[in-house]
């Protein structure tokens, strides 16, 4: 068994490997980087998500980005580990943004449908006028979107699929490829946060 390198020497070693990877694009160097950093990146990502499979997938995406972007690495500005963990964090942030954007786009659809139904009711009943109905529907959409923006991306997806799409826990688990236990625990956490935001029981 090879002796473990001192931290400073180990850091310099991986800085050199990553620099060389950027210059030569050598597959053996990448394999060495992958085997060393993949479990560390996964452990880092588990700080952001409790879903093991999601952390595993994002760790793989991070190391793929290392392969693609190694030529951008500058050892004079950051250690290899810092640079790689920064990639992982950016991938997580991008995932959250894209998930919430998809949710809000779908909320636009539900809001349009709700507005059409509201306008039809107004026309049939002779009640409030169309601008006022539109304002009511818009406020409703904004409130929902604001609440979902306050949730982590996965929890927002769970709430959306459960209550706007009407899917069962098992269907959500299949859609997101996560254990059903993660769906249930994620929804419980989401509801707790929504209760705190609304000040009511859900």
TrEMBL record:
Gene3D superfamilies: 1.10.1740.10, Winged helix-like DNA-binding domain superfamily/Winged helix DNA-binding domain (1.10.10.10). Keywords: Sigma factor, Transcription, Transcription regulation. The keyword Cell inner membrane does not apply. This is RNA polymerase sigma factor. Residues 33-100 form the RNA polymerase sigma-70 region domain. GO terms for molecular function: DNA binding; sigma factor activity. The lineage of its organism: Bacteria, Pseudomonadati, Pseudomonadota, Gammaproteobacteria, Oceanospirillales. InterPro entries: RNA_pol_sigma-70-like, RNA_pol_sigma-70_dom, RNA_pol_sigma70_r2, RNA_pol_sigma70_r4_t2, RNA_pol_sigma_r2, RNA_pol_sigma_r3/r4-like, WH-like_DNA-bd_sf. Belongs to the sigma-70 factor family. ECF subfamily.
């Amino acid at each position: 068994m090879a002796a473990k390198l001192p931290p400073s020497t180990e850091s310099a070693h991986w800085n050199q490997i990553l620099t060389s990877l950027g210059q030569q694009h050598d597959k053996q160097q990448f394999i060495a980087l992958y085997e060393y950093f993949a479990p560390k990146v996964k452990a880092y990502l588990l700080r952001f998500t409790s879903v093991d499979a999601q952390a595993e997938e994002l760790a793989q995406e991070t190391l793929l980005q290392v392969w693609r972007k190694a030529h951008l690495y500058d050892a004079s500005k950051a250690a290899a580990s810092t640079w790689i963990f920064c990639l992982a964090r950016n991938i997580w942030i991008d995932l959250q943004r894209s998930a919430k954007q998809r949710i809000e786009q779908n909320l636009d659809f539900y809001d349009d449908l709700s507005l059409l139904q509201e306008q039809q009711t107004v026309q049939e009943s002779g009640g409030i006028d169309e601008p006022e109905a539109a304002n009511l529907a818009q406020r409703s959409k904004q409130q929902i979107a604001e609440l979902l923006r306050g949730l982590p991306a996965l929890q927002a997806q769970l709430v959306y699929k459960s209550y706007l799409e009407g899917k069962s826990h098992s269907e959500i688990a299949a859609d997101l490829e996560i254990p059903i236990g993660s769906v249930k625990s994620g929804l419980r956490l989401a509801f707790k946060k929504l209760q705190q935001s609304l000040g009511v029981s859900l």
